């Protein structure tokens, strides 16, 4: 049984990197996690509810009326909300169950930069407060709670957060509450997000939290590399998640798996599990793939993870696995609780222009165990700096530069052989 743990952990592959999945998996898919919904029984356009795609008219009320109409209709199979070509300026709006939000080619849902138009909502119970500041948080641009059968798709239309105003407030320390996401779905199931561009989010881009059965595929996520905390996709205390065939280039982690923060995550007690990530390309100044830094749900463990078939270019660390990353929501966390990191396999990873092979740094009283590296090879313009390991055990097979001595034990090599 994992010890209760408020600490944060980070498993970062391709820190400050380009992350490219190998083509060998091109035919594999996990999209069947959520079957395609039946044909929607009705279709409505936001333009029919007083909306105007002129880039100036505020369409918050038009979107709200359109979604309310879908909810009232209760059409067989649900209904589709169609967003025609044009720039649809809006404040935040909620979705409803059994609906499709469809963005036509050339359609842009653009967030208003007037912060007074963004309602405040309660902090997530697994976080206890806003992630950035105490108190509540701004609702996401597109939001839903307790929904079923929701599809967000189209012809590669754009959801534009116009995040620069929020980034400036963060940099100038004038934020009053935690910044909003572009898309947050809470306590929802059977979700599909595909063929849409997410651009310039104020904070994290796509945040499914307390969700199950979610497919995110063929999505493009863009933000400048100096935009703060613009994570691409952050599954949080969620299960049965499929993320594949996406391009992500942002100012923070491309994909970060989370499950609550310190004692609040422990009390909420929901781990993230059953998550598959395939064929992701892009770039990030931080992690291409991260677990953490919020992983307190179900005792703060990270285990049974496989990372394979990855190509890196121009990175500082090829692999970084460290404990106790980040900060705390308050002073009420249990300082004696420690995380568990066990059974992580990293295989078939190639990197060029790598400065340091990797850092694997466990916690003295809770060493990382059964870490397996296989066919992991890094090169650089200058000699790649050697692996650094501390409080870790495991095995290494065909690793260049030569692995640290902590990963050459007989028992660790045996686990490594059996896990491949």
TrEMBL record:
UniProt keyword Oxidoreductase present: no
InterPro entries attached to this UniProt entry: GH28_Enzymes (IPR051801), Glyco_hydro_28 (IPR000743), PbH1 (IPR006626), Pectin_lyas_fold (IPR012334), Pectin_lyase_fold/virulence (IPR011050)
Entry's family note: Belongs to the glycosyl hydrolase 28 family.
Keyword Nucleotide-binding attached: no
A biological-process GO annotation: carbohydrate metabolic process
Entry keywords, A to Z: Glycosidase, Hydrolase, Signal
GO molecular function, one term: polygalacturonase activity
Signal peptide (residue range): 1-26
Protein name (Swiss-Prot/TrEMBL): Pectin lyase-like superfamily protein
């Amino acid at each position: 049984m994992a010890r209760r743990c408020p600490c944060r952990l980070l498993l970062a592959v391709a820190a400050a990197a380009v992350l490219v999945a190998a083509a060998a998996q091109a035919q594999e898919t996990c999209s069947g996690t959520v079957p395609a919904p039946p044909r929607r029984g009705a279709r409505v356009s936001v333009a029919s509810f007083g909306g105007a795609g002129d880039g100036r008219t505020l369409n918050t009320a038009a979107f709200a009326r359109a979604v309310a109409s879908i909810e009232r209709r209760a059409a067989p199979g649900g209904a589709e909300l169609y967003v025609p070509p044009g720039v649809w300026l809006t404040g935040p709006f909620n979705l409803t169950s059994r609906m499709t939000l469809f963005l036509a080619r050339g359609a842009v849902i653009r967030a208003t930069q007037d912060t007074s138009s963004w309602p405040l909502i309660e902090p997530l119970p697994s976080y206890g407060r806003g992630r950035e500041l105490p108190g509540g948080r701004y609702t996401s641009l597109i939001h839903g709670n307790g929904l079923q059968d929701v599809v967000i798709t189209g012809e590669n239309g754009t959801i534009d957060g116009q995040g620069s105003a929020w980034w400036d407030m963060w940099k100038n320390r004038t934020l009053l509450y935690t910044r909003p996401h572009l898309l947050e779905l809470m306590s929802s199931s059977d979700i599909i997000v595909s063929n849409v561009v997410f651009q310039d989010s104020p904070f994290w881009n796509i945040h499914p939290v307390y969700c199950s059965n979610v497919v995110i595929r063929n999505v493009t996520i863009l933000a400048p590399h100096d935009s703060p905390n613009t994570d691409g996709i952050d599954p949080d205390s969620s299960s049965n998640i499929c993320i594949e065939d996406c391009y992500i280039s942002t100012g923070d982690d491309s994909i970060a798996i989370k499950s609550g923060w310190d004692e609040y995550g422990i009390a909420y007690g929901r781990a993230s599990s059953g998550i598959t990530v395939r064929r992701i390309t892009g770039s990030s100044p931080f992690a291409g793939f991260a677990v953490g830094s919020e992983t307190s749900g179900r005792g703060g463990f990270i285990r049974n993870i496989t990372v394979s078939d990855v190509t890196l270019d121009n990175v500082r660390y090829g692999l970084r696995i460290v404990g106790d990353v980040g900060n705390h929501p308050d002073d009420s966390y249990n300082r004696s609780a420690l995380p568990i990191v066990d059974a992580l396999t990293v295989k078939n990873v190639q990197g060029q222009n790598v400065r340091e092979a990797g850092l694997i740094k466990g916690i003295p009283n809770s060493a990382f165990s059964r870490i397996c590296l296989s066919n992991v090879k890094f090169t650089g313009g200058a000699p790649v700096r050697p692996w650094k390991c501390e409080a870790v055990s495991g095995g290494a097979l065909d690793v260049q530069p030569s692995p640290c001595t902590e990963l050459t034990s007989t028992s660790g090599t045996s686990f490594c052989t059996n896990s491949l």
